[in-house]
Design a protein that fits this description.
Shape of chain A: globular
Largest sheet of chain A: 7 strands, mixed
Structural class of chain B: mainly beta
Order of helices and strands of chain B: EEEEEEEEEEE
Distance between the termini of chain A: 37 Å
Structural class of chain A: mainly beta
Shape of chain B: globular
Oligomer: heterodimer
Distance between the termini of chain B: 41 Å
Number of helices of chain A: 0
Radius of gyration of chain B: 13 Å
Largest interface: A-B, 27 and 25 residues
Largest sheet of chain B: 6 strands, mixed
Helix content of chain B: under 10%
Strand content of chain A: over 45%
Order of helices and strands of chain A: EEEEEEEEEEE
Number of strands of chain A: 11
Radius of gyration of chain A: 13 Å
Chain lengths: 112, 112
């Protein structure tokens, strides 16, 4: 089974801090995604990547950036954390339409 | 882009009864429709999916139906059990770029 590992389950950061959320997959999947999940809003796509060093903006990229230096690792960066970025962040990988997405367990980020 | 609407947002059923969750989509190019189950503290997990060339798919107590003309698809859970209690998300993708568009989720509670 594909395994997607998010480095932290819970994070508490201060406003203005630079925050790194890490995601690692153990399959050779090209596609990786970062979503945020908020009550009543479902899952919203922040950024995605089809290959190393490639990135595409999703629906809500403002305030975020990403890095993909290696195929298995996709990092989400909050350049200057704000309280409205308090949320659950989910990483996913996609091996093609035969598999659908596989999600990590999520990182619940609180910005104070 | 694609817009996926999901209803109801909350659903309570007695153990043993059936549960139905409905989704509509807007992009007629969408051709893959997965359903995810998210248990407390975990990431969403794929439970069933359907492609646009199929009208219905069943896996034990879970079934999904698709009406391409009306652009809606539904999840049916029969003989519900307490362990079915979770948040369920529908999704749709046109297949281009593999970006999935998610519904806002349904919180299902099965009452013993």
């Amino acid at each position: 089974d594909v395994k997607v590992t998010q480095s932290s389950r819970y994070l508490v950061k201060r406003t203005g801090e630079k925050v790194f959320l890490e995601c690692v997959q153990d399959m050779d999947h090209e596609n990786m995604f970062w979503y945020r999940q908020d009550p009543g809003l479902g899952l919203r796509l922040i950024y995605f990547s089809y290959d190393v060093k490639m990135k595409e903006k999703g629906d809500i990229p403002e305030g975020y950036s990403v890095s993909r230096e290696k195929k298995e690792r996709f990092s989400l960066i909050l350049e200057s954390a704000s309280t409205n970025q308090t949320s659950m962040y989910l990483c996913a990988t996609d091996g093609g339409l035969n598999y659908g997405y596989t999600f990590g367990s999520g990182t619940r980020l609180t910005v104070v | 882009g694609e817009n996926v609407e999901q209803h109801p947002s909350t659903l309570s059923v007695q153990e043993g009864d059936s549960a139905v969750i409905k989704c509509t989509y807007s992009d007629s190019a969408s051709n893959y429709f997965p359903w995810y189950k998210q248990e407390l503290g975990k990431g969403p997990q794929l439970i069933i999916d359907i492609r646009s060339n199929v009208g219905e798919k069943k896996d034990q107590r879970i079934a999904v139906t698709l009406n391409k003309t009306a652009k809606h698809f539904s999840l049916h859970i029969t003989e519900t059990q307490p362990e079915d209690s979770a948040v369920y998300f529908c999704a749709a993708t046109p297949g281009t770029g593999n970006q999935f568009y998610f519904g806002t989720g349904t919180s299902l509670t099965v009452i013993p």
